[in-house]
Amino acid sequence: MASRKQDERLAFWESYGEPDADPAVRWRSLLYELRHLGAVRLEQHRLGQAAAVRDSYAGVAAVLAAALTGPLSRVV
Fold this sequence. Notes:
Blueprint: H1 6-16, H2 23-46, H3 50-69
Helix pairs in contact: 2-3
């Protein structure tokens, strides 16, 4: 889904600038990514796409692991 708008994303980051490399920014970005993946999973469930929901668990697990093992994981 998101890859369809890659040109728009590149144009945005070229004009806006790259995000800060601060660990808190990276952690917050991971949380937003998890929220997005959850919304996609919910929509797939609503549409009866059981295989897509099942296949999404690995991606969610990878992002969640990154969020929970980063430098801010002790804050959570």
